[in-house]
Amino acid sequence: MRRRSLHLLVPVLLAASTAACGGASGGGAAPLPPLSLVGGHAQIGHLTITRAYIPDPATPSLAAAYFTVTNAGPADRLVSVRTAAFRSATLHREVTTARGLEQMVAVPAGAVVPAYGRLVLMPGSYHVMLRRPLRALRQGVTERLTLRFAKAGVVRLVVPVVPATGLPGSTAGSSGDMAGMSK
């Protein structure tokens, strides 16, 4: 029981400290909103999905979605992602080859959400590859993703399209680029 209580407290403390610290620029900058409240979010069972976003794509035919899945229970697996806004939505991961090159590979078996842990989809790691949108993406609009987990089931997620630099306060992938992708 103690492990569970501590696990639930850590995200709250991180969000509070982030809000208290404000932005990277000093001198009167408005504080950033808590990380858990930025971007799209949803909950299903023991899983909480936060910080969902799609960076404004550099190319009209390819985009990526990122989010964090926090698990307050037993291990689960993100099995698939679907959307009516794109012709294709697949889970990918960036890996380093034996020759030291970065390469994206599809992850058809899905990605593990560890027990009492997190699965973080971010540039340079796991991400949802979105191919061939049915309409042009632009900042300020939202897209809907349907996430299917092996144990928790299906949840719908409303995801904002944000500037290519990502969400406010983001440290991962601050450039918004996906390493290994040519523009």
Query: Which radius of gyration do the C-alpha atoms yield?
Result: 17 Å
DSSP strand tally: 11
Counting DSSP H or I runs of 4 or more residues, the number of helices is 1
Give the helix proportion (percent range). Answer: 10-25%
The rounded distance between the terminal residues' Cα atoms is 49 Å
Largest sheet, strands/sense/barrel: 11 strands, mixed
What integer is the average pLDDT? Answer: 78
Derived from helix and strand composition plus strand pairing, the structural class reads: mainly beta
Q: What is the succession of H and E elements? A: HEEEEEEEEEEE
Q: Please indicate the percent range of residues in DSSP E strands (runs of 2 or more).
A: 35-45%
Low-confidence stretches: 1-37, 171-183
The gross shape turns out to be: globular
Task: Tag the structure with descriptive keywords.
183 residues; mainly beta; eleven-stranded mixed beta sheet; 1 helix; 11 strands; disordered N terminus; disordered C terminus
Quick structural overview:
This protein has one helix spanning 2-21, and strands at residues 40-44, 47-55, 62-71, 76-82, 86-96, 102-106, 111-113, 118-121, 126-133, 142-149, 153-162. With 183 residues, the protein is mainly beta. It starts with a helix and ends in a 21-residue tail after the last strand.
